[in-house]
Each structure stands twice: as structure tokens, then as C-alpha cells.
Amino acid sequence: SPELPADFETARAEAERLTADIERYRTAYYSEATSLVSDAEYDELFHRLEAIEREFPELVGQDSPTQEVGAAVVSAGFPEHEHAERMLSLDNVFSLDEFREWAEKARAAAGREVRWLSELKIDGLAISLAYRNGVLETATTRGDGRVGEDITENVRFIPVIPARLDAGAPGGAAIPEFFEARGEVFLASTDFAALNARQRQLQAEFAAEQTAKGVPEDRIPVRYPDFANARNTAAGSLRQRAEKKNERELELMRDRLGRLSLYVHGIGAWQHPDFENQSDAYRMLAEWGLPVSPHSRVFDSVDEVVGFIEDRGEHRHDVEHEIDGIVVKIDELELHAELGQTSRAPRWAIAYKYPPEEVHTELLDIRIGI
Ligand code: NAD
Fold this sequence. Notes:
By secondary structure, the chain is an alpha+beta fold. The chain folds into 3 domains: 1-67, Helix hairpin bin (Helix Hairpins), CATH 1.10.287; 78-187 and 238-370, 2-Layer Sandwich (D-amino Acid Aminotransferase, Chain A, domain 1), CATH 3.30.470; 190-227. It is 39% helix and 18% strand. It contains 11 helices and 11 strands. It has helices spanning 8-32, 39-55, 96-110, 152-155, 189-212, 230-238, 247-258, 278-287, 302-314, 333-339, 361-367; strands at 80-82, 92-93, 116-122, 125-132, 135-141, 147-149, 178-186, 261-270, 297-299, 323-330, 349-353. The protein has a 5-stranded mixed beta sheet with strand order 2-11-10-3-9, with helices on both faces. The chain has a 4-stranded antiparallel beta sheet with strand order 5-4-7-8. The chain has a two-stranded antiparallel ribbon with strand order 1-6. α1 runs antiparallel to α2. The radius of gyration is 22 Å and the shape is globular. The site of nicotinamide-adenine-dinucleotide has 24 residues, from α1, α2, β3 and β8.
């Protein structure tokens, strides 16, 4: 990357420009489920800003995007809901060397050997599910990490998210009176394809109606466009508003919600946890009926984690959902408390991001003449 600014004034001017751009992209991404730039371009701006702030720490204000989680809720009309425990983002690394450096530091801070819970980083959107007495009380988007949008009414149409937990086998762990499970809502690749097939069918039906009314073919508007990518489609589906929709539109909205999936990947507030590792929590959540990713692994050594990262990178598209990296977490919960967190991210976890793929679908579409 280009050299850092030499003096404070130049640095400030560049940091301001970067902040303005990042804020604009974030608002579009989190509030409108639209990407104005690719994730890789966004990450590059973010990292340039981080590097400038490291060199000129006086520039780091509380409102710098590097100090914040997501974006404050720009209301689509859902009630606001405060998380019982804050939701965080993750720090990123972009190379295996950077990953090893992070792991070494984390292990040094822990003061002992640790186990590494390694997971696929699902390209979806974060959600918090609060259960009271085994019943889903609220489902909330991450928002700014403190307050999100209460989207419970929509989540009730997602079949894989249980409204009531299953007490599990006799002798199994008791469900606490209250807990928050954190996870990622996503659209599986096959569901994304099916949804787009449905859009084309709807458009064809609409076009036939228009033709019957005598509208010339080149004047028929596109009412049901293709969805651009699975992540933004999942985000858009989840934040649809039922208000002012007619029966037909409601049916389509529920159809879109019904196709969403979820994997749980964390815990928030939890009364009297009686387990020692995050992977134990996953096993319990799975017993109670919450979907947990089958792809997670626990490793004893950093070399094994690196092997996992490399292997999964080669088989990125063999997974049922889009992934944009690997999340590595220290498995022992005791160490989570010990290592703590920054204003934005835990110190006991990191996201390794894969380099962007070279073939962009838009280019491919042009080449194969769609
Ligand atoms: P992030 O996506 O880098 O990492 C944090 C999130 O990862 C968590 O909140 C969680 O929701 C998710 N996650 C997925 N799988 C997980 C797992 N197994 N364990 C734990 N968490 C998991 O950070 P972010 O703050 O959500 O967003 C920043 C990223 O969003 C950027 O790096 C970029 O990729 C994208 N973004 C893109 C644009 C754009 O315009 N293209 C704008 C804003 C953000």
C-alpha cells in the first residue's frame, strides 16, 4: 500500500476523506443492504484508515469507524432493542503471517497453550436470539452493537429458528432461564439460486400479463429483478416490512423469509454458564434445537489451524453458503474473560479474510452473454 502521510495535516485530511467514504458505504450496507463497493475495496479503505490512526493516534476520535461496531440503526420502522450483552465485530487479518502473529500474541496474553476453535466465516448478517424459559423472546440485528432492531416478527417465519427450544434428552443440560445466542442469518447458495429462478418466473408471468394488455415488449418494466448477491438478499429479506403490503406481497415476503438459514456462532448474556468451552456451548445449543455449523473444528496447534485455513480456501465453493474467511477463537471461556475486548472486537478471536476472487460474476455474465 502507498506510503503513509508524512505530516499531521495531510494525515488528517486523508483520514477525514476515508471516514466520509467508509460511513457512506456502511450506511448503504447495513441500512439498505446494498454494496456500493466490493468488500475487498471496503476493507482496503478501512485498513488504510487504521494504519494512519496507528501512525497519528491523535486522530482517533470516538466516532472513528475503526472504534465502532456496524452502524447505528437507521430505522426501517422496527422497534429498537438493547442487547443484554454487547455484540461485537471481529478484527481482521489478511495473510497467514499476520494470523500467526496474532495467534502468538493471544497465546502469550493467555500465558499458556490454548485450543483454537476454527470456523467458517459465513457471509451473512449477525443476529441475537434471546430465549426466556426456552421460548424465543426477541430476535435483534446487531445494530451498533448496543442497540439493534427488533425483527422478531419476521424471524417467526424462518423455520430453522425455533420459537420454543427442545429440552433435549433426559440427563442433558438444563436450559437457562435467560440467554442470548448469537449467530449468522444467511441464504444458502441453492436457496439463492432458487430465489432468482422464482424472480425470473414472476417476471415472465408479469411480462405475459403486460403483453396481454397490449404493452409492447420493449416497454415492459422489470418488476422482479435478479438479486445481486446472497448476503445482501438475506439482509434485505430479514428487514422487509409487512406494513402496507397486500396479500400477494406478504406471501412473497414470507417465501423469502422461509428460505433463510442460520448457524449459531456465539453466546451473549447467559445465566450461570456451566460449561468451559465455546464448543461445549455449541453442543448444548444444538441439543436444544438451534442450528450449529457442521464445519467447525477445534485444534491444539496453530499449524493445524493454518492447514484448515488453506484447505478450506481451496474448497470455498464446496460449502452450502458463501464464506469470506475463517474465524479463529480461543475455545476456553475463562480466557475470553481474561483477554477481554476493545471497543469494537474481542481480543480472543480473529477473522482471517481470503483474498477476493479474481472472476467477478458481472464479468463472467458478460463473457457468457447473459
Ligand atoms: P466482519 O464481517 O469482518 O466480522 C464480524 C462479523 O462476522 C460478526 O459480527 C458475525 O456476524 C460474522 N461472522 C460470520 N461467521 C462468524 C463466525 N463463525 N463466528 C463469529 N462471527 C462470524 O465485520 P463487520 O463489522 O460485520 O463488517 C465489516 C465487513 O462487512 C467488511 O469487512 C466488509 O466485508 C463488509 N462491509 C462491506 C461494505 C461494502 O460496501 N461492500 C460496507 C460495510 C461492510
